[in-house]
Task: inverse folding
């Protein structure tokens, strides 16, 4: 589905019920917006383990502007600021008072920005392998220098410089960096996952604020700054926690959504 908002059209898809029978009444579930990474990725990465969260929430998959199945538009508009405001416009388009938000990687940066700009609209906030500031880039580069192969260090130069100029270059980046994104990366499965998605080399080149490194100290920094935050460190995962430790990942999110306050407080 496409929502015409803020001069563009944003793709979204809904999975799961918003209300479920509970005795003699209907129980309202959290409405969980899933914000993908990149920049330049799309929502299809959530179609794996994350889709199982439909048993505790109504899921809303979203493609950021210029990404996935959203309209291409003007690449100059592929900004973090627009991603934040697009999310609130989509919330309003769907007639929702408050929403729960799960942001992974770059999507976590969008989620943090949304919570800061629209705090009264956020019922629950879940951040996965993300960072609160551009300073994580220095740490990511140091970690890559320590742990990366010569090929991985070489392919990341396009990322640091923001000069991808073709889908072939972007595909090569993800193929080479796959083992650092996920400890369960299987080269033979790469093509199928790549072909399911629709990525944008323009979006990643313009934003330049992605890193494949897993930096748990940045998660601790975020948790320390958020009142009543709950921090979960996954010891056996790379950047792709949902793929590396799906059972533990789902258990943590289900638990949080179960005891967190419902969207309208009842």
Result:
């Amino acid at each position: 589905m496409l929502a015409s908002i803020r001069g563009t059209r944003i793709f979204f898809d809904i999975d799961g019920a918003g209300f479920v029978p509970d005795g003699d009444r209907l129980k309202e579930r959290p409405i969980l917006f899933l914000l993908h990474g990149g920049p330049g990725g799309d929502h299809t990465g959530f179609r794996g383990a994350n889709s199982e969260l439909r048993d505790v929430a109504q899921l809303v998959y979203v493609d950021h502007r210029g990404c996935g199945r959203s309209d291409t538009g003007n690449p100059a508009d592929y900004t973090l600021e627009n991603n934040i405001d697009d999310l609130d416009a989509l919330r309003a388009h769907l007639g929702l008072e408050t929403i729960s938000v799960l942001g992974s990687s770059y999507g976590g940066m969008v989620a943090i920005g949304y919570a800061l700009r629209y705090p009264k609209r956020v019922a629950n906030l879940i951040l996965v392998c993300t960072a609160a500031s551009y300073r994580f880039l220095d740490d990511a580069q140091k970690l890559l220098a320590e742990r990366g192969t010569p090929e991985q260090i070489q392919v990341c130069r396009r990322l640091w410089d923001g000069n991808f100029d073709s889908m072939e270059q972007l595909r090569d980046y993800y193929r080479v960096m796959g083992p650092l994104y996920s400890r369960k990366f299987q080269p033979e499965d790469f093509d199928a996952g790549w072909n399911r998605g629709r990525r944008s080399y323009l979006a990643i080149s313009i934003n330049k604020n992605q890193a494949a490194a897993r930096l748990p100290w940045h998660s601790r920094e975020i948790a320390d700054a958020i009142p009543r935050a709950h921090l979960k460190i996954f010891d056996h995962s790379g950047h792709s926690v949902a793929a590396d430790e799906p059972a533990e990942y789902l258990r943590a999110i289900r638990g949080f959504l179960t005891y967190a306050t419902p969207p309208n407080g009842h």
